[in-house]
Structures are given as structure tokens and as C-alpha cells.
Write a structure and sequence with these properties.
Strand 2 and strand 3 form a beta hairpin. The strands form 2 sheets. The protein has a two-stranded parallel ribbon. Strands 2-3 form a two-stranded antiparallel ribbon. The chain is globular and about 65 Å long. The protein contains 7 helices and 4 strands, in the order H-H-E-E-E-H-H-E-H-H-H. Helices cover 68% and strands 4% of the residues. It has one domain: Growth Hormone, Chain: A, CATH 1.20.1250.20. By secondary structure, the chain is mainly alpha-helical.
């Protein structure tokens, strides 16, 4: 079970971006809707809305349809559900990168590259990446909890369920480690770096593409591990 557990750390590193780089990106976008100003950190609400939306959709619509093809009571196995979540996380980071590319293009067109000011592109363009992250969360985190509870030895179910939650904290550490490496290597020789104080000068999109690539590699490793995993016999 350990390799399956380890692949959850990279997903948690992607999930950590919701409270870090997504907020930094939002701070450099237009946060006004009429006379109302949207705090960038508040967009995490759409992650919660996404979870509330996808849980009943998954249980009431997706599972019954999948059940007809897989002949499984839950529609998808826990491993399949986690794999779907990992795939969605790749799309999520790609969506964030595309939004950042457009933001940087607009900054260049308006000659705002050297100015640490918000670019006039609505922060609402971030909603898809939050929504996708919520969908990935529903598949991966819930599937992970079910997997560790069902597949762990009977006397170790509580411990294994707790281990699945440990990936969240390790993912945050991994996110910080990746950010440290990116900052170190991209600022060599006096270069501005991908993530500078002024994001209009940097390339936050490269960082998002890097995480998308790591997520894709993680998904491939997960697929290999999951295909070789032998299910525990029902006790």
C-alpha cells in the first residue's frame, strides 16, 4: 500500500497551491466587480462549492452509469477513483497556467511588465481551476480514505486512515521544497526568476506547467503501482 500512499503526496502539493500561488496570481488580477472588491483568498469558496456540487453528482449520476459498465457496486474501485482525481489535477494546473499566460500577455500589451500592479483581467477567470481542484479532491481524497480503510489490516484501519491524511502535510512540505528549488535555480546569475516580487516580470505559468508535468509523471507512476496492486480479500 505504501507506493499508492506516496503518490498522494504530489497531489497534495498541487492542492496546496489553492492557498498559495493561486492567491498570489489572483492578487495581480482585477478583483473588482462593479463597486465590490473580491479578496483573492476568498475564491477558495469555489473549491467548497465544487465539492458540494460533485459529491451528489458522483453518487447519483456517475456511479449508476459506471456500474452498468464495470459491474461494481461503487461504480469505480477506489484505485480507479483516485486515478481519475490525479488526472483532473493535471488539467487543473494546466488551466491555471493558461490563465497566467493570458495575464502575462495582457501585461505585455499594456506595458505593465515593469509595474507591480494588477492586470485588467477578471479574477473570475480563476474559477475553473478552483472548480477542477474541487473535483479532483472529491475523487482523490475520498477514494484514498476508502482505499486505506478497506485495504488495511483489520487491526490497523484507524492508523492507515490517519496515514492517508498525512499526505496533506507532506504535500505542503513538498510544495515549499519545489518552490525553494525553482527560486534558487531560476534566479541564478541575477535573473528575475519565475516567481519574482513583481509577478508581471516573472513566469508563474512555468511553475504551474512544472506542477502539471510532475502531476502527470505522478499519475503514470500511480497507474503502474495500481495495476500491480493485489486487492485484499474480504475479511
Amino acid at each position: 500500500m505504501f507506493p499508492i500512499w506516496a503518490t498522494g503526496i504530489v497531489f497534495s502539493a498541487v492542492y496546496a497551491q489553492m492557498s498559495t500561488m493561486f492567491v498570489e496570481q489572483g492578487m495581480m488580477m482585477d478583483t473588482k466587480i462593479g463597486s465590490f472588491t473580491i479578496p483573492p483568498a476568498s475564491l477558495s469558496t469555489f473549491d467548497v462549492i465544487s465539492v458540494i456540487f460533485w459529491v451528489p453528482i458522483y453518487d447519483r449520476i456517475i456511479v449508476p452509469i459506471a456500474r452498468k459498465f464495470t459491474r461494481k457496486e461503487r461504480g469505480f474501485s477506489e484505485l480507479q477513483r483516485m486515478g481519475i482525481g490525479l488526472f483532473i489535477s493535471v488539467i487543473c494546473m494546466s488551466a491555471a497556467a493558461v490563465v497566467e499566460i493570458r495575464r502575462l500577455q495582457l501585461a505585455k500589451e499594456l506595458d505593465l511588465v515593469d509595474k507591480q500592479v494588477a492586470v485588467p483581467i477578471s479574477i473570475l477567470w480563476q474559477i475553473p481551476q478552483y472548480f477542477l481542484l474541487g473535483a479532483a479532491e472529491v475523487c482523490t481524497f475520498i477514494g484514498q480514505l476508502e482505499f486505506f480503510y478497506d485495504q488495511s489490516p483489520d487491526a490497523m484501519r484507524s492508523l492507515c486512515s490517519a496515514l492517508s491524511l498525512l499526505t496533506t502535510s507532506l504535500g505542503n512540505y513538498l510544495s515549499s521544497f519545489i518552490l525553494t528549488l525553482v527560486t534558487y535555480f531560476t534566479t541564478k546569475g541575477g535573473q528575475i526568476g519565475w516567481i519574482s516580487d513583481n509577478l508581471n516580470e516573472g513566469h508563474l505559468d512555468y511553475f504551474f506547467w512544472l506542477l502539471a508535468g510532475l502531476s502527470f509523471l505522478n499519475m503514470l507512476v500511480y497507474t503502474l503501482c495500481a495495476s500491480r496492486y493485489k486487492q485484499k480479500k474480504a475479511s
